[in-house]
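Comment thread on ticket #2218

A.B. wrote:
> Attaching the input chain for the structure job we discussed in standup.
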Amino acid sequence: MIRKMERSDLAEIIKIEAKVYPFPWSQQIFIDSMDASALLVVLEMHQQIVGYAVLSHGVGESEILNIVVTPEAQGKGYGDILLHWVIEQARKVNSETIFLEVRASNLVAQNLYQKVGFNEIGERRGYYRVKGGAREDALVFALQLFF
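C.D. wrote:
> Ran it. Output below, let me know if you need it in another format.
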């Protein structure tokens, strides 16, 4: 079941962020996203959060800011479920294009995005922090939505 993320979910979301990312989002970033009218949702299975997504909207476009599946739930199709759901939400607000950034090393996510029609349109050099002070490039993907 996909539902709106509530502030009461944030303690669990922060725990998941810490498991998934070396430099996780803070609770304040999630609160700021909620206050900025981004769409934040969780995917629950058996009353347990197994994933979540953050989608922002602008005039004619949307951006996937975060899409996460817990390590324990990865490889079960939950990322695909979340991705298709956020694409549908972007269509509902008449977005023409959806954008996202993904680590150059995250081949699993890149394959998922390409499978549903996203195309790589650019690169942001040194966009992501890496432990040890290094930086990793981000690949920019876009999906054109047709009505």
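A.B. wrote:
> Thanks. Noting for the ticket: The radius of gyration is 15 Å.
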